[in-house]
Amino acid sequence: MSLWKTHELYQSLDEKLSPTYLESLTEDELIELNDFISEKNDWYRYNKLATFKPYPYQLEYYSAALSHRQRYLSCSNRIGKSYGMAAEMAQHLCGDYATWWNGYRFENGGEIFWCIGLTQESTNGVLMKELLGVSDCRNLIDLGTGSIPREYIDVDSMVKDGERCKSVRIKHVSGKDNILHFYAATQGPMVLAGQTVGGMIWMDEQSPQEMEIYDQARTRTMTTKGHIAVTATPELGPTELWQTFHDDESGLLYMQTATWWDAHEKYVEGGHITDAIIDEQRASCSPHKFQMRSKGIPVMGEGAVYDFGEDAINTHIHIDEILKAPFAYKMLWGCDFGYAATERADPSTLILCAYKMENDTIYVVDEWNSKKDMLKVELPHQPAHMAKIIKESLFPNAPLICPHDGNGSAHGDNTTRIAEFKSLGINVISKVFEIPKQLTKGVIGAPSHPRSLEWTIQYLNTLFSQGKLKIDVNKPQGLMKEYRTYQWKENGKPVDKNNHHLDAMRYAVVTIKHRGLYASHCLHIPTNRWADSSDIDNRMKSRRF
Protein backbone atom coordinates (compact mmCIF):
# COMPACT_ATOMS: atom_id res chain seq x y z
CA MET A 1 0.00 0.00 0.00
CA SER A 2 1.18 3.55 -0.77
CA LEU A 3 2.82 5.44 2.08
CA TRP A 4 0.25 8.22 1.70
CA LYS A 5 -2.75 5.86 1.65
CA THR A 6 -1.54 4.18 4.84
CA HIS A 7 -1.21 7.62 6.44
CA GLU A 8 -4.75 8.51 5.35
CA LEU A 9 -5.98 5.20 6.78
CA TYR A 10 -4.43 5.93 10.17
CA GLN A 11 -5.90 9.43 10.13
CA SER A 12 -9.39 8.23 9.22
CA LEU A 13 -9.16 5.55 11.89
CA ASP A 14 -8.32 8.14 14.54
CA GLU A 15 -11.38 10.14 13.50
CA LYS A 16 -13.89 7.30 13.73
CA LEU A 17 -12.66 5.41 16.81
CA SER A 18 -15.45 5.56 19.35
CA PRO A 19 -17.13 3.16 21.80
CA THR A 20 -20.00 2.74 19.35
CA TYR A 21 -17.65 1.85 16.51
CA LEU A 22 -15.66 -0.61 18.64
CA GLU A 23 -18.86 -2.32 19.80
CA SER A 24 -19.79 -2.91 16.17
CA LEU A 25 -16.64 -4.98 15.47
CA THR A 26 -16.33 -8.75 15.73
CA GLU A 27 -13.68 -10.32 17.96
CA ASP A 28 -11.44 -11.08 14.96
CA GLU A 29 -11.82 -7.49 13.73
CA LEU A 30 -10.90 -6.17 17.17
CA ILE A 31 -7.73 -8.31 17.22
CA GLU A 32 -6.83 -7.09 13.73
CA LEU A 33 -7.52 -3.47 14.75
CA ASN A 34 -5.39 -3.83 17.89
CA ASP A 35 -2.46 -5.16 15.85
CA PHE A 36 -2.89 -2.32 13.36
CA ILE A 37 -2.92 0.36 16.07
CA SER A 38 0.03 -1.17 17.94
CA GLU A 39 2.08 -0.88 14.76
CA LYS A 40 1.15 2.80 14.31
CA ASN A 41 3.97 4.40 16.31
CA ASP A 42 6.61 2.22 14.70
CA TRP A 43 5.13 2.91 11.28
CA TYR A 44 5.36 6.68 11.71
CA ARG A 45 8.88 6.38 13.14
CA TYR A 46 10.03 4.81 9.86
CA ASN A 47 7.72 6.79 7.56
CA LYS A 48 8.45 10.37 8.58
CA LEU A 49 7.69 11.61 5.06
CA ALA A 50 3.97 10.89 5.55
CA THR A 51 3.62 13.75 8.06
CA PHE A 52 5.47 16.36 5.98
CA LYS A 53 3.31 19.40 5.18
CA PRO A 54 5.01 21.81 2.76
CA TYR A 55 4.91 25.56 3.19
CA PRO A 56 3.72 27.63 0.20
CA TYR A 57 7.30 28.66 -0.66
CA GLN A 58 8.28 24.97 -0.84
CA LEU A 59 5.36 24.15 -3.15
CA GLU A 60 6.40 27.07 -5.34
CA TYR A 61 9.93 25.68 -5.55
CA TYR A 62 8.71 22.16 -6.30
CA SER A 63 6.37 23.31 -9.07
CA ALA A 64 9.15 25.29 -10.76
CA ALA A 65 10.78 21.96 -11.74
CA LEU A 66 7.97 21.37 -14.22
CA SER A 67 9.53 24.01 -16.46
CA HIS A 68 13.12 24.30 -15.15
CA ARG A 69 15.71 21.53 -14.88
CA GLN A 70 17.98 23.80 -12.81
CA ARG A 71 16.73 25.59 -9.68
CA TYR A 72 18.33 27.66 -6.92
CA LEU A 73 16.66 28.26 -3.54
CA SER A 74 18.37 31.14 -1.72
CA CYS A 75 17.07 30.77 1.83
CA SER A 76 17.19 32.28 5.26
CA ASN A 77 18.34 30.06 8.13
CA ARG A 78 16.12 27.52 9.84
CA ILE A 79 13.00 27.66 7.67
CA GLY A 80 13.04 24.02 6.54
CA LYS A 81 15.31 24.38 3.51
CA SER A 82 17.07 21.02 3.89
CA TYR A 83 14.00 19.25 5.29
CA GLY A 84 11.89 20.40 2.35
CA MET A 85 14.51 19.40 -0.21
CA ALA A 86 14.96 16.01 1.46
CA ALA A 87 11.19 15.47 1.17
CA GLU A 88 11.43 16.17 -2.56
CA MET A 89 14.42 13.86 -3.03
CA ALA A 90 12.72 11.07 -1.08
CA GLN A 91 9.64 11.16 -3.31
CA HIS A 92 11.77 11.11 -6.46
CA LEU A 93 13.88 8.23 -5.16
CA CYS A 94 10.88 6.09 -4.14
CA GLY A 95 8.46 7.20 -6.85
CA ASP A 96 5.72 7.36 -4.19
CA TYR A 97 4.35 10.91 -4.57
CA ALA A 98 2.00 12.69 -2.20
CA THR A 99 -1.47 13.74 -3.32
CA TRP A 100 -0.38 17.38 -2.88
CA TRP A 101 2.75 16.94 -5.04
CA ASN A 102 2.79 19.60 -7.78
CA GLY A 103 6.29 19.19 -9.23
CA TYR A 104 8.20 17.05 -11.71
CA ARG A 105 8.02 13.25 -11.35
CA PHE A 106 10.70 10.62 -11.96
CA GLU A 107 8.27 7.86 -12.93
CA ASN A 108 10.54 5.08 -14.19
CA GLY A 109 13.30 4.45 -11.63
CA GLY A 110 16.70 3.00 -12.47
CA GLU A 111 18.46 6.40 -12.18
CA ILE A 112 21.47 7.87 -10.40
CA PHE A 113 20.98 10.59 -7.76
CA TRP A 114 23.64 12.71 -6.04
CA CYS A 115 23.65 14.66 -2.78
CA ILE A 116 26.60 17.05 -2.35
CA GLY A 117 27.21 18.66 1.04
CA LEU A 118 29.72 21.26 2.10
CA THR A 119 32.09 19.04 4.10
CA GLN A 120 32.03 15.37 4.99
CA GLU A 121 30.75 16.27 8.44
CA SER A 122 27.90 18.39 7.07
CA THR A 123 27.08 15.78 4.44
CA ASN A 124 26.71 13.18 7.18
CA GLY A 125 25.06 15.49 9.70
CA VAL A 126 22.63 17.20 7.32
CA LEU A 127 22.05 15.31 4.07
CA MET A 128 22.45 11.75 5.34
CA LYS A 129 20.56 12.63 8.51
CA GLU A 130 17.67 14.22 6.62
CA LEU A 131 17.37 11.45 4.05
CA LEU A 132 18.36 8.26 5.90
CA GLY A 133 17.73 9.35 9.49
CA VAL A 134 21.33 8.76 10.65
CA SER A 135 24.63 10.64 10.56
CA ASP A 136 26.49 7.32 11.07
CA CYS A 137 25.38 4.65 8.62
CA ARG A 138 26.42 1.94 11.07
CA ASN A 139 23.42 2.92 13.23
CA LEU A 140 20.94 0.44 11.80
CA ILE A 141 18.31 0.98 14.50
CA ASP A 142 17.62 4.56 13.39
CA LEU A 143 18.23 3.93 9.69
CA GLY A 144 15.00 4.81 7.91
CA THR A 145 13.84 7.52 10.33
CA GLY A 146 14.62 10.26 7.79
CA SER A 147 12.60 11.33 4.76
CA ILE A 148 13.21 8.06 2.87
CA PRO A 149 10.91 5.40 4.39
CA ARG A 150 12.76 2.42 5.83
CA GLU A 151 11.01 -0.12 3.61
CA TYR A 152 12.46 1.57 0.50
CA ILE A 153 16.10 1.43 1.68
CA ASP A 154 18.08 -1.60 0.48
CA VAL A 155 20.28 -1.85 3.56
CA ASP A 156 22.41 -4.70 2.16
CA SER A 157 23.41 -2.57 -0.85
CA MET A 158 24.92 0.21 1.25
CA VAL A 159 28.57 1.04 0.44
CA LYS A 160 30.18 2.31 3.65
CA ASP A 161 33.35 4.08 4.62
CA GLY A 162 33.25 4.06 8.40
CA GLU A 163 30.35 6.25 9.47
CA ARG A 164 29.95 7.60 5.95
CA CYS A 165 27.48 6.16 3.45
CA LYS A 166 29.03 6.43 -0.01
CA SER A 167 26.02 5.01 -1.86
CA VAL A 168 22.83 3.03 -1.30
CA ARG A 169 20.10 1.54 -3.47
CA ILE A 170 16.59 2.94 -2.98
CA LYS A 171 13.64 0.85 -4.11
CA HIS A 172 11.33 2.55 -6.62
CA VAL A 173 7.64 1.73 -7.13
CA SER A 174 8.44 0.85 -10.76
CA GLY A 175 10.55 -2.07 -9.57
CA LYS A 176 13.80 -0.45 -10.80
CA ASP A 177 16.09 0.65 -7.97
CA ASN A 178 17.57 4.14 -7.93
CA ILE A 179 21.13 4.62 -6.63
CA LEU A 180 21.85 7.47 -4.22
CA HIS A 181 25.43 8.77 -3.85
CA PHE A 182 26.70 11.13 -1.14
CA TYR A 183 29.62 13.50 -1.80
CA ALA A 184 31.28 16.45 -0.06
CA ALA A 185 32.39 19.61 -1.87
CA THR A 186 35.75 19.33 -0.10
CA GLN A 187 36.42 16.17 -2.14
CA GLY A 188 36.72 18.43 -5.19
CA PRO A 189 34.94 18.27 -8.55
CA MET A 190 37.06 15.50 -10.03
CA VAL A 191 35.39 12.77 -7.92
CA LEU A 192 32.26 13.54 -9.95
CA ALA A 193 33.91 13.15 -13.35
CA GLY A 194 32.96 10.37 -15.74
CA GLN A 195 29.47 9.65 -14.38
CA THR A 196 26.05 10.41 -15.83
CA VAL A 197 23.05 11.36 -13.70
CA GLY A 198 19.50 10.84 -14.91
CA GLY A 199 17.91 11.62 -11.58
CA MET A 200 18.59 14.70 -9.49
CA ILE A 201 21.72 16.37 -8.15
CA TRP A 202 21.18 18.22 -4.87
CA MET A 203 23.90 20.76 -4.02
CA ASP A 204 23.50 22.03 -0.45
CA GLU A 205 25.11 25.32 0.71
CA GLN A 206 27.75 27.54 -0.89
CA SER A 207 31.35 26.40 -1.14
CA PRO A 208 34.54 27.77 -2.69
CA GLN A 209 34.39 24.92 -5.23
CA GLU A 210 30.69 25.33 -6.09
CA MET A 211 31.13 26.68 -9.63
CA GLU A 212 33.41 23.79 -10.62
CA ILE A 213 30.99 21.32 -9.00
CA TYR A 214 28.05 22.96 -10.76
CA ASP A 215 29.90 22.68 -14.10
CA GLN A 216 30.34 18.95 -13.46
CA ALA A 217 26.66 18.66 -12.50
CA ARG A 218 25.60 20.35 -15.74
CA THR A 219 27.83 18.03 -17.77
CA ARG A 220 26.56 14.89 -16.00
CA THR A 221 22.88 15.80 -16.61
CA MET A 222 23.29 17.35 -20.07
CA THR A 223 21.88 14.45 -22.10
CA THR A 224 19.85 12.58 -19.47
CA LYS A 225 16.99 14.97 -18.55
CA GLY A 226 18.48 15.00 -15.06
CA HIS A 227 17.74 17.88 -12.70
CA ILE A 228 19.94 20.12 -10.53
CA ALA A 229 18.65 21.68 -7.29
CA VAL A 230 20.75 24.11 -5.25
CA THR A 231 19.74 25.10 -1.71
CA ALA A 232 21.81 27.64 0.19
CA THR A 233 21.87 30.40 2.74
CA PRO A 234 24.26 32.83 0.99
CA GLU A 235 26.90 33.02 3.73
CA LEU A 236 29.61 33.64 1.09
CA GLY A 237 27.68 36.49 -0.53
CA PRO A 238 26.69 36.83 -4.21
CA THR A 239 29.05 34.16 -5.50
CA GLU A 240 29.50 33.41 -9.19
CA LEU A 241 26.95 30.61 -9.00
CA TRP A 242 24.42 32.78 -7.15
CA GLN A 243 24.90 35.51 -9.75
CA THR A 244 24.58 32.99 -12.60
CA PHE A 245 21.05 32.14 -11.48
CA HIS A 246 20.13 35.63 -10.34
CA ASP A 247 21.22 37.35 -13.57
CA ASP A 248 20.01 34.67 -16.00
CA GLU A 249 17.96 36.14 -18.83
CA SER A 250 17.41 32.93 -20.80
CA GLY A 251 14.49 31.77 -18.65
CA LEU A 252 16.13 28.36 -18.27
CA LEU A 253 17.47 28.89 -14.75
CA TYR A 254 15.07 29.33 -11.83
CA MET A 255 15.90 31.32 -8.72
CA GLN A 256 13.72 31.78 -5.65
CA THR A 257 14.33 33.44 -2.30
CA ALA A 258 12.63 32.48 0.96
CA THR A 259 12.66 34.38 4.25
CA TRP A 260 11.80 33.78 7.89
CA TRP A 261 8.39 35.27 7.12
CA ASP A 262 7.72 32.46 4.63
CA ALA A 263 7.67 30.13 7.66
CA HIS A 264 6.30 32.59 10.24
CA GLU A 265 3.35 31.57 12.39
CA LYS A 266 1.55 34.83 11.56
CA TYR A 267 1.72 34.39 7.80
CA VAL A 268 1.56 30.66 7.03
CA GLU A 269 -0.45 27.86 8.58
CA GLY A 270 1.70 25.79 10.91
CA GLY A 271 4.60 28.24 10.73
CA HIS A 272 7.40 27.58 13.23
CA ILE A 273 9.21 30.95 13.16
CA THR A 274 8.01 33.43 15.80
CA ASP A 275 8.65 37.09 16.59
CA ALA A 276 10.56 35.98 19.71
CA ILE A 277 12.95 33.90 17.59
CA ILE A 278 13.52 36.83 15.23
CA ASP A 279 14.13 39.27 18.10
CA GLU A 280 16.64 36.89 19.66
CA GLN A 281 18.52 36.52 16.38
CA ARG A 282 18.46 40.26 15.76
CA ALA A 283 20.08 40.87 19.14
CA SER A 284 22.78 38.24 18.72
CA CYS A 285 24.24 38.99 15.26
CA SER A 286 25.45 41.94 13.22
CA PRO A 287 22.97 43.83 11.00
CA HIS A 288 24.78 42.45 7.91
CA LYS A 289 24.41 38.86 9.09
CA PHE A 290 20.85 39.46 10.21
CA GLN A 291 19.81 40.63 6.73
CA MET A 292 21.37 37.57 5.12
CA ARG A 293 20.13 35.02 7.67
CA SER A 294 16.59 36.37 7.86
CA LYS A 295 15.98 37.00 4.18
CA GLY A 296 18.18 34.49 2.37
CA ILE A 297 19.90 37.05 0.15
CA PRO A 298 23.44 38.42 0.03
CA VAL A 299 23.72 42.03 1.13
CA MET A 300 24.17 43.83 -2.17
CA GLY A 301 25.46 47.21 -1.07
CA GLU A 302 25.77 49.82 -3.82
CA GLY A 303 24.44 47.52 -6.53
CA ALA A 304 20.86 47.62 -5.19
CA VAL A 305 18.37 49.72 -7.18
CA TYR A 306 16.44 50.55 -4.02
CA ASP A 307 19.25 50.79 -1.51
CA PHE A 308 17.23 51.23 1.68
CA GLY A 309 17.19 48.79 4.58
CA GLU A 310 13.84 47.20 5.27
CA ASP A 311 13.61 48.74 8.73
CA ALA A 312 13.79 52.18 7.09
CA ILE A 313 10.84 51.58 4.73
CA ASN A 314 8.73 49.35 6.99
CA THR A 315 5.29 50.31 8.28
CA HIS A 316 2.21 48.58 9.66
CA ILE A 317 -0.79 50.22 8.05
CA HIS A 318 -4.07 48.28 8.36
CA ILE A 319 -7.05 48.40 6.03
CA ASP A 320 -9.21 49.37 9.02
CA GLU A 321 -7.28 52.62 9.32
CA ILE A 322 -8.29 53.52 5.78
CA LEU A 323 -11.90 52.40 6.25
CA LYS A 324 -12.24 54.52 9.41
CA ALA A 325 -11.11 57.65 7.54
CA PRO A 326 -11.92 57.07 3.86
CA PHE A 327 -11.74 60.78 3.03
CA ALA A 328 -8.16 60.99 4.29
CA TYR A 329 -6.76 58.60 1.68
CA LYS A 330 -6.61 58.29 -2.07
CA MET A 331 -6.45 54.78 -3.56
CA LEU A 332 -5.06 53.45 -6.85
CA TRP A 333 -4.15 50.11 -8.43
CA GLY A 334 -1.00 49.66 -10.50
CA CYS A 335 -0.54 46.66 -12.78
CA ASP A 336 1.97 44.88 -15.00
CA PHE A 337 1.05 42.32 -17.65
CA GLY A 338 2.32 38.79 -18.12
CA TYR A 339 1.97 37.02 -21.44
CA ALA A 340 1.36 33.35 -20.62
CA ALA A 341 -0.12 31.22 -17.86
CA THR A 342 2.96 29.07 -17.25
CA GLU A 343 5.35 28.77 -14.33
CA ARG A 344 8.28 30.04 -16.42
CA ALA A 345 6.41 33.03 -17.87
CA ASP A 346 6.40 36.47 -16.28
CA PRO A 347 3.27 36.94 -14.13
CA SER A 348 0.64 39.63 -14.35
CA THR A 349 0.68 41.68 -11.15
CA LEU A 350 -1.51 44.11 -9.22
CA ILE A 351 -0.35 46.48 -6.49
CA LEU A 352 -2.80 48.55 -4.42
CA CYS A 353 -1.48 51.82 -2.98
CA ALA A 354 -2.97 54.34 -0.57
CA TYR A 355 -1.94 58.00 -0.35
CA LYS A 356 -2.54 59.70 3.01
CA MET A 357 -2.82 63.38 2.27
CA GLU A 358 -2.28 64.67 5.83
CA ASN A 359 1.28 63.36 6.04
CA ASP A 360 1.96 63.22 2.27
CA THR A 361 2.87 59.53 2.47
CA ILE A 362 2.17 56.66 0.07
CA TYR A 363 1.59 53.15 1.44
CA VAL A 364 1.69 49.81 -0.38
CA VAL A 365 -1.49 48.11 0.84
CA ASP A 366 -1.82 44.83 -1.06
CA GLU A 367 -0.46 42.73 -3.93
CA TRP A 368 -1.55 39.94 -6.29
CA ASN A 369 0.15 37.97 -9.07
CA SER A 370 -1.27 35.53 -11.59
CA LYS A 371 0.93 32.62 -10.50
CA LYS A 372 -1.12 32.40 -7.31
CA ASP A 373 -4.15 31.35 -9.34
CA MET A 374 -2.54 29.15 -12.01
CA LEU A 375 -4.12 25.99 -10.61
CA LYS A 376 -7.54 27.61 -10.14
CA VAL A 377 -8.07 29.52 -13.39
CA GLU A 378 -7.13 28.73 -16.97
CA LEU A 379 -5.85 32.22 -17.93
CA PRO A 380 -5.17 34.11 -14.68
CA HIS A 381 -2.78 36.57 -16.38
CA GLN A 382 -5.45 38.11 -18.59
CA PRO A 383 -7.58 41.20 -17.84
CA ALA A 384 -10.76 39.19 -17.18
CA HIS A 385 -9.28 37.50 -14.11
CA MET A 386 -7.38 40.61 -13.02
CA ALA A 387 -10.70 42.47 -13.11
CA LYS A 388 -12.24 39.78 -10.92
CA ILE A 389 -9.46 40.23 -8.35
CA ILE A 390 -10.07 44.00 -8.25
CA LYS A 391 -13.87 43.60 -8.01
CA GLU A 392 -13.57 41.16 -5.10
CA SER A 393 -11.26 43.50 -3.17
CA LEU A 394 -12.38 46.09 -0.61
CA PHE A 395 -11.67 48.85 -3.14
CA PRO A 396 -13.24 47.68 -6.41
CA ASN A 397 -13.70 51.19 -7.72
CA ALA A 398 -10.12 52.37 -7.14
CA PRO A 399 -8.59 53.63 -10.41
CA LEU A 400 -6.27 51.29 -12.30
CA ILE A 401 -3.18 52.58 -14.13
CA CYS A 402 -1.80 50.37 -16.92
CA PRO A 403 1.69 50.31 -18.49
CA HIS A 404 2.25 51.04 -22.19
CA ASP A 405 1.12 47.55 -23.25
CA GLY A 406 -2.32 48.41 -21.91
CA ASN A 407 -2.86 49.68 -25.46
CA GLY A 408 -2.09 46.19 -26.76
CA SER A 409 -4.48 43.28 -27.06
CA ALA A 410 -4.57 40.24 -24.82
CA HIS A 411 -6.40 38.16 -27.45
CA GLY A 412 -4.85 39.18 -30.75
CA ASP A 413 -7.90 41.21 -31.80
CA ASN A 414 -8.58 44.94 -31.89
CA THR A 415 -9.70 45.16 -28.26
CA THR A 416 -7.02 46.72 -26.06
CA ARG A 417 -6.45 45.65 -22.49
CA ILE A 418 -7.67 49.06 -21.30
CA ALA A 419 -10.87 48.70 -23.34
CA GLU A 420 -11.39 45.21 -21.94
CA PHE A 421 -10.99 46.47 -18.37
CA LYS A 422 -13.56 49.20 -19.10
CA SER A 423 -16.04 46.68 -20.52
CA LEU A 424 -15.63 44.63 -17.33
CA GLY A 425 -16.58 47.59 -15.17
CA ILE A 426 -13.11 48.50 -13.91
CA ASN A 427 -12.32 52.15 -13.22
CA VAL A 428 -9.28 52.05 -15.50
CA ILE A 429 -7.48 55.26 -16.45
CA SER A 430 -8.00 55.71 -20.20
CA LYS A 431 -4.39 56.61 -20.98
CA VAL A 432 -1.42 54.35 -20.32
CA PHE A 433 1.13 55.29 -17.67
CA GLU A 434 3.07 58.52 -18.12
CA ILE A 435 4.82 60.67 -15.55
CA PRO A 436 2.36 63.41 -14.43
CA LYS A 437 3.48 66.82 -15.63
CA GLN A 438 3.07 68.19 -12.09
CA LEU A 439 5.98 65.99 -10.94
CA THR A 440 8.38 67.04 -13.71
CA LYS A 441 8.83 70.54 -12.28
CA GLY A 442 10.27 69.34 -8.96
CA VAL A 443 13.84 68.86 -7.75
CA ILE A 444 14.39 65.78 -9.91
CA GLY A 445 13.80 67.79 -13.07
CA ALA A 446 12.18 66.82 -16.32
CA PRO A 447 12.50 63.19 -17.50
CA SER A 448 14.12 62.33 -20.82
CA HIS A 449 11.00 60.32 -21.74
CA PRO A 450 7.41 60.51 -20.42
CA ARG A 451 7.73 56.93 -19.12
CA SER A 452 11.42 57.12 -18.12
CA LEU A 453 12.45 54.11 -16.05
CA GLU A 454 15.46 55.89 -14.55
CA TRP A 455 13.44 58.98 -13.60
CA THR A 456 10.66 56.99 -11.92
CA ILE A 457 13.20 54.89 -9.98
CA GLN A 458 14.85 58.10 -8.81
CA TYR A 459 11.44 59.46 -7.77
CA LEU A 460 10.70 56.36 -5.68
CA ASN A 461 14.16 56.50 -4.12
CA THR A 462 13.52 60.14 -3.18
CA LEU A 463 10.25 59.17 -1.49
CA PHE A 464 11.95 56.29 0.33
CA SER A 465 14.73 58.62 1.55
CA GLN A 466 12.17 61.13 2.84
CA GLY A 467 10.07 58.49 4.58
CA LYS A 468 7.20 59.25 2.19
CA LEU A 469 6.90 55.74 0.69
CA LYS A 470 6.24 52.87 3.08
CA ILE A 471 5.76 49.09 2.76
CA ASP A 472 4.78 46.49 5.33
CA VAL A 473 7.83 44.36 4.49
CA ASN A 474 6.26 41.20 5.94
CA LYS A 475 3.04 41.35 3.92
CA PRO A 476 3.57 41.76 0.12
CA GLN A 477 5.98 38.83 -0.18
CA GLY A 478 6.23 38.84 -3.98
CA LEU A 479 7.08 42.54 -3.99
CA MET A 480 9.67 42.20 -1.23
CA LYS A 481 11.40 39.25 -2.91
CA GLU A 482 11.92 41.45 -5.95
CA TYR A 483 12.93 44.47 -3.84
CA ARG A 484 15.70 42.47 -2.16
CA THR A 485 17.32 41.32 -5.40
CA TYR A 486 16.69 44.18 -7.84
CA GLN A 487 20.12 45.37 -9.04
CA TRP A 488 21.84 47.75 -11.41
CA LYS A 489 23.82 46.27 -14.29
CA GLU A 490 27.22 47.58 -15.28
CA ASN A 491 25.67 49.67 -18.08
CA GLY A 492 23.67 51.69 -15.56
CA LYS A 493 20.39 49.93 -16.33
CA PRO A 494 18.53 47.73 -13.84
CA VAL A 495 18.40 43.98 -14.48
CA ASP A 496 15.17 43.46 -16.45
CA LYS A 497 13.85 40.37 -14.68
CA ASN A 498 11.99 39.56 -11.48
CA ASN A 499 10.64 43.11 -11.37
CA HIS A 500 6.94 42.79 -12.16
CA HIS A 501 5.60 43.66 -8.71
CA LEU A 502 8.13 46.50 -8.56
CA ASP A 503 6.95 47.85 -11.93
CA ALA A 504 3.29 47.77 -10.84
CA MET A 505 4.28 49.59 -7.63
CA ARG A 506 6.28 52.15 -9.62
CA TYR A 507 3.33 52.99 -11.89
CA ALA A 508 0.98 53.28 -8.92
CA VAL A 509 3.29 55.38 -6.73
CA VAL A 510 4.09 57.89 -9.51
CA THR A 511 0.41 58.24 -10.44
CA ILE A 512 -1.56 58.12 -7.19
CA LYS A 513 -1.22 61.73 -5.97
CA HIS A 514 -2.72 63.15 -9.15
CA ARG A 515 -5.02 60.37 -10.39
CA GLY A 516 -5.93 58.52 -7.21
CA LEU A 517 -9.54 58.51 -5.95
CA TYR A 518 -10.77 59.11 -2.40
CA ALA A 519 -11.10 55.77 -0.60
CA SER A 520 -14.72 56.66 0.21
CA HIS A 521 -15.48 56.50 -3.52
CA CYS A 522 -13.62 53.21 -4.00
CA LEU A 523 -15.59 51.07 -1.53
CA HIS A 524 -18.32 48.54 -2.30
CA ILE A 525 -21.60 50.42 -2.71
CA PRO A 526 -24.53 49.08 -0.62
CA THR A 527 -27.73 48.21 -2.49
CA ASN A 528 -29.63 50.71 -0.29
CA ARG A 529 -28.64 54.13 -1.64
CA TRP A 530 -29.93 55.92 1.49
CA ALA A 531 -27.87 53.63 3.70
CA ASP A 532 -24.84 54.59 1.66
CA SER A 533 -25.49 58.32 2.16
CA SER A 534 -26.09 57.84 5.88
CA ASP A 535 -22.90 55.84 6.25
CA ILE A 536 -20.84 58.55 4.53
CA ASP A 537 -22.53 61.25 6.62
CA ASN A 538 -21.69 59.41 9.86
CA ARG A 539 -18.10 58.96 8.79
CA MET A 540 -17.83 62.65 7.99
CA LYS A 541 -19.17 63.58 11.43
CA SER A 542 -16.61 61.36 13.16
CA ARG A 543 -13.75 62.76 11.11
CA ARG A 544 -11.43 65.12 13.01
CA PHE A 545 -9.44 67.58 10.90
TrEMBL record:
InterPro entries linked to this entry: P-loop_NTPase (IPR027417)
Superkingdom of origin: Bacteria
Protein name per UniProt: Bacteriophage terminase large (ATPase) subunit and inactivated derivatives
UniProt organism field: Klebsiella quasivariicola
